[in-house]
Each structure stands twice: as C-alpha cells, then as structure tokens.
Amino acid sequence: MAAAQINGTEIAYQQMGEGPDLVFVHGLAASRAFWFLQYAMPLSRHFRITLFDLRGHGYSGRPDSGYDAATLAEDLRALLDLLAIERCSLIGHSYGGGVAMEFAGRHPDRVERLALLDTKLNSLQPEMRMSDSPHVSPFEAEIANKTGRDWDAETQVGLRFLEDLARWKLAGGGSQARDAFTPFGEGRGATRTAKQLVDVLDNTSARSDFVKPGVNAAAIGALKMPVLLIYGEYSRCLPTLRQLQQLLPQARTEMLAQGGHFFPQTHGRATLALIESFLGLPSRRGDEGKAPDAPDVLRSQVD
Known about the structure:
Layout: E1 2-6, E2 9-16, E3 21-25, H1 33-43, E4 48-52, H2 69-82, E5 88-93, H3 95-106, E6 111-117, H4 138-147, H5 157-170, H6 187-203, H7 206-209, H8 217-221, E7 227-232, H9 238-247, E8 252-256, H10 263-266, H11 268-278, H12 297-302
Parallel strand pairs: 3-4, 3-5, 5-6, 6-7, 7-8
Antiparallel strand pairs: 1-2, 2-4
C-alpha cells in the first residue's frame, strides 16, 4: 500500500499488473478491498490496476468536508496526475459510480471506457425510496423492523440503511437473517468499517455532501466513450438506469437476475465476465446467473 497527499488529505492507493490503465472506485462503507480478489487480481494479467480508498474510507484520511462526488472526482484527478495516468478505463460501484461519472463529465478526454455498477446519480434520482424496488431482502426487513423507522417515508433508503446497519453493528447487534453479502459482516475489519461510516456521518459534512446533485444530464448526454451499465434486478437505482439509457444511446445495459445492490460480490463471476467482455477480453458469459460465489471477499480482505 502507498499513500499520497491529495488536496490536503492522505489518500491510500495501490497498483498491480501491467498494461492499459484500469481504475476502480468503491462505494460507501467499503474500501479498495471491495475490488481486490475478484476483480483486480484476475484483471491485473491484462491491465495496470489502480485501487484507492475514498477519503473517509479504508486507510485514507478523514477530513471535515469534501465528500460530494465533485470533490471526490477531483481527488481522483489529482491521484491520476500523480501517477502519470493520462487516460484510463474507469469502473465504479454505487457512490463510486457517481464519482466515476463526475470525473467523466469533467474530464471526458481522460476516460477510455466507463462502467457503472448499480449507481444512483443524485442529479437523475434525487431520492431513493423503499418502493423503488418490489424486493425487500430478509436482512433488510430485519433491520427495518429493529429500527422502528418509517421506511416508507424515508427519502434516502440506501444511505439510511447503511447508517442504521453500522450503528446496529456497533451496538452488538446480531442477525439470524443473512443475505449472501451484507456490509459490516464479521470480524475486526467489519467493526472498523462500521465505526468509520458512523464517524464520517456524525463528524463531517458527508451527510449533506452524499446527496448533492453532481454532474447534470447535459454533461452526461455529451459523453461519447463506450459505457457499460450493470444493475441488479432488485436494485433501487433503476430510476437512474432508465434515464442513463435515454441519455447514453451508446451504452450497453446488463441486468443481473436476482441481483441486489452488492451484486459485484454476490455475483462476482457473472460481473467479471461482463466487465472482461466490455474491456475486449474473452467473454465468460457461461458463468452468468450462477449462484453467489464469494460472499466473504470484503471481510477477508479488510480484516
């Protein structure tokens, strides 16, 4: 692991492999470990991989402000400048996809290809409600019942679920209803990640930054690079997907059957096959739709 002072904050990063540049951006309550085993390692045979921790996550610093997608995109730009990466393919999951899209909108000439994995863009989908998906997993239902929150009235379900889950984890909560993958699963790394999220939400501007609009529809529609949109069947980000399909006619859309928000972990083989095909590598489409294959990757990499 290496670290650099980027826009006044220490940003942890690592590189592996050789070849064209491929950069991954993780989502909230995760770290670069999210990508390491299932994606960075196999793809490093073909690409130079860059992974990094967003500010406030993993081993990066936790400043008091600057958690909006625009500021995080400028962190990414400065990191790429430091590493002398002029142009790269960019892959982002969840809020990391928002950062990737923000970077592409600001610096389109620096993005070779863009892949968004279950991303909600605030400018296209200002709210996320429980009703945005007909599917509520047993684990989500358990958390919802324990908090006693009026989830039908909640306008940022994804963020609120992560927050409530983190606080429940730190209070010693245990679960009988486990999804194939949920944040803050087991072990010291899970507890550390839960503490980080709560700290960021309680002691920085992140709570308001996370819902700032970001790149607008006009800038998105002006993008010309190849785009891959991978979403889960049970996603609550589908309102974003529908607008992206209209704004980006060149985009290729893939929907993962029975996939929830964390399908990059629960459907790792299928997701990797789609990414490999998009990047021009031999396809593994025969793996698509297989049962969850590595639910413990994040836990084992963070501990």
